[in-house]
Structure formats: C-alpha cells, structure tokens
From TrEMBL:
<dbReference type="InterPro" id="IPR004666">
    <property type="entry name" value="Rp_bS6_RimK/Lys_biosynth_LsyX"/>
</dbReference>
<keyword id="KW-0436">Ligase</keyword>
<feature type="domain" description="ATP-grasp">
    <location>
        <begin position="271"/>
        <end position="454"/>
    </location>
</feature>
<dbReference type="InterPro" id="IPR011761">
    <property type="entry name" value="ATP-grasp"/>
</dbReference>
<dbReference type="InterPro" id="IPR013651">
    <property type="entry name" value="ATP-grasp_RimK-type"/>
</dbReference>
<dbReference type="GO" id="GO:0005737">
    <property type="term" value="C:cytoplasm"/>
</dbReference>
<dbReference type="InterPro" id="IPR013815">
    <property type="entry name" value="ATP_grasp_subdomain_1"/>
</dbReference>
<protein>
    <recommendedName>
        <fullName>Probable alpha-L-glutamate ligase</fullName>
    </recommendedName>
</protein>
<keyword id="KW-0479">Metal-binding</keyword>
<comment type="similarity">
    <text>In the C-terminal section; belongs to the RimK family.</text>
</comment>
<dbReference type="InterPro" id="IPR008503">
    <property type="entry name" value="Asp_endopeptidase"/>
</dbReference>
<dbReference type="InterPro" id="IPR041107">
    <property type="entry name" value="Rimk_N"/>
</dbReference>
<dbReference type="InterPro" id="IPR021109">
    <property type="entry name" value="Peptidase_aspartic_dom_sf"/>
</dbReference>
<dbReference type="GO" id="GO:0005524">
    <property type="term" value="F:ATP binding"/>
</dbReference>
<dbReference type="GO" id="GO:0006412">
    <property type="term" value="P:translation"/>
</dbReference>
<dbReference type="Pfam" id="PF18030">
    <property type="entry name" value="Rimk_N"/>
</dbReference>
<keyword id="KW-0464">Manganese</keyword>
Amino acid sequence: MNEISDNAPPLLRFGWEEWVALPDLGLPALKAKVDTGARTSALHAFDIETFGPANAPKVRFTVHPVPGREDLVIPCSARVIDRRNVTSSNGETESRYVIASSLRVGDESWRIEMTLTNRDRMASRMLLGREALKDHITIVATDRFQQPKLSYDVYTSAGLRKTAPNRSLRIAVLSREDNYSTRRLVEEGEARGHSVEVIDTTRCYMAINALSPEVHYDGKRLPRYDAVIPRIGASITSYGTAVIRQFETIGTFCLNGSDGITASRDKLYAHQLMARHRIGMPNTAFAASPKDTDSLMRLVGTAPLIVKLLESTQGKGVVLAETKKAAQSVIDAFRGLKANFLVQDFVKEAAGEDIRCLVVGGKVVASMKRTGAEGDFRSNLHRGGSAKVVRITREERETALRAAKAFKLGIAGVDLLRSETGPKVLEVNSSPGLEGIETATKKNIAGLVMDHIEARVRPAPVRSRQGMREGSED
C-alpha cells in the first residue's frame, strides 16, 4: 500500500449534498447537489443579462439562495469566460453563460467554473459537477453533509452587507445633455468596472400597473438598474420626476428621490420646507393679489429687495430692486406676465458672494466661495462668476447638512449667504453641476458619488422570519 505524502492535501469526504459558499459572489451559504454525472457545475440564477464592452463582457444576475424565499434576493455580477450549450438529463439543450468563482467548503477553497441557469424548481440552489471536484475528494453517495454545516441565518446578519463583494453595477444617468457632469459620472463609474448608461429622460415611457411596473426606452423595456442618478433639467421637472417615481416603484435606488427634486424646484415650497425645519434663510414673502404689494414688501423689510421667479434657475429671473419704487415696478411687471415670484430681503454684507456646499450621502464633501462678475449681485458661475475653495464654519456645515436632509437628497448643492446673524440658505439644488466645484477644490466629486452608490446598493440584510432558518433538508 502506498503511503500518503505529508504534503498531500487532506482527504475531503463529500456526501451527495453539501453546504458550500461562493464568497466572490456574496453567497455565504448554499446547498449544493453533488453530481459526478454532470461535467460542469451550475448555479441557480434569474434576471440574467450581459453588460459592458464586447471584448470584456460581464454578466449580472440575481439569486434566491434559500429555497422558497423569493423575497430574499442577492444581486451578483461576474466576468463572462465562455458560453456553452448544456444538455440536461431530459434532453433539452440550453445556451448558458459560464463564470468562475472561488468555492469554499469548510476550511478549503478553490476556483471553479459554473454555468448560470434557472433552477427555481430544484431543491438545491447549486449543482457541483465533476470538473469542480478535486482529486482528493471522495464521494459518499449514500450520505449527506459530510462537511461542516452552514446556516441560512447569515442572510439576516448585518455582516452580510460588510462582506459583500465589490460587484460591477449597472447605473443609469438620466440626462438630456452631454455636459461635464454627465461625462464625469460615466467616466468614474466605468473606471470602477461599472456599466453606466446615459438615458434621455424625455424618451422614457412607462407601463403603470400593480404587478409589473416598467420603464421603456426606444421601444424596449429598460433593464434592471442597481442605481439611477437623476440629472433632471428644470424645464422637464414634472415629467422627469414621474420617471423617477416609476423607478422608485420598481425598487431601484435613486440617488435623489422624486419628492426631493420636486420640492427643490418649487421655490415657494422649498422655503416653506426650510422654515418648517428651522433652517436659516433670508426673510421671504409671497402673495397673489396686486393689492398686497406694499404689505408684501413691508413683511420683508426695506429696499433693496430681491424679486425672484419661482421657476428661476442659474440666476435667471432674479432681480435686485434697489429702491421701493423699483421693487413696485418689478413686481407689477411680473404680475402682468402672470408669473409667480418671491420677494426677499437683500443681504448686503454678503457683497455678491455665496458659498456652495456640496453634500453627498449626508456629508459635506466640498465647498467653494462664488463671487459674481463685475457689477452683478448674482454669483452664479453660469453668469460669469468665479469660484475658489473656502473653509466653512461648523455652523455653515451643519446648516448645509440639515438642508439636504430636509429635502431627503443624496446629492445636493446647498447655497449659503454669510450674514451678520449666521448662514442663510438661498437655495437647495437637486442637480448640482460638478465642473465648478471639482475645478475649484481639485476633489474627485464624481468618485465620491460612486462611493455613496456602491455603499447603498450592496445586498442588505433582511429580517428573519419563521421558516428562514435551515428548515427541512429536502
């Protein structure tokens, strides 16, 4: 009898069913059927779709790791290494994507190849073929679970989020413009191995129903995205937020929600929302009747005053009235156009400067001071203003964070004025441009946005419920 070398790997005994883990895919516990009659291993998967460049395609899919628990979904992605025709035991041939992943059994781990197929009717979520079985594995066909048992309880643990792999994501940027911000988001996402698609918001249309709400684009149903980054222009706010609501209904993570965007675009509602949250802002007044003009101005204070259209963006529709008579003339002109507007006091000590604080994921990640062009009280960069990095105070930071939180925005540009009585919020922008602040601060803001998305869309732990634990062993 030949003796086993001291350097030989330990002998592994496998039953016809074993507990395994696929850590590369974020699957810490699966039951696998061992089938030496099958050459290639197979993993139960659904919603299988490819993405990425043709010369290096990837595949994304989802897995129900626990039989009978369709509400527990783990999203996965991997590089496609092949595509094979596989013939099942009943004689049906199916073309399947082939991926590779580490297989862990007990303290042992090795790399295997597997095909992706829907095994929804199978008791085991995975089939282990003979190519995956190492030479030092012996099969005990009459027994099960010769290796250490695992538990489905891992899918209810907070540790699941922490140990999730850095899988490739499929991200949609809702934008009609090929501008700096859109290009930077695409560039940063693709540099991390994600698939980032730019979708023209106005070309989306929706199937609205209770069972399977969908978003369609150019004649096809849009795929399932891990995240949506809205870059909705002011002129299409109503339709754009309707599209975002549809993605929210589907369950897609939206960096900025429809409610927050709607609130930020309605300046009257925005100021009411900030007042409700006790956020400092310039004295503001609003009235519909022309008979209230003088009373309206008295509520705000003495001239000079700011008269601002509710639909204004990038400094357009914002007028400085330096005298009471000038304010009355501007208000009468706006009313003649049947336009809605606000009247605010002019913060003289700001001297044509404001501070843009960029909030991402509940943190102020960058701030810059914007100064208006010569002779212009507006500091918007689109109107010829300039910007430079600025150090903000603790009070300014807390004000910006409270404002972004009030609007429930994942990314927000909060514009502040420095006044004698503390920071005053001028506006909360739900679609802030990245060019000015990246240039001024030299920070990779697009990268910070991707960091936040990656953290939010990892598989989250689900609540434990009766029957989720090991249950029957089939």
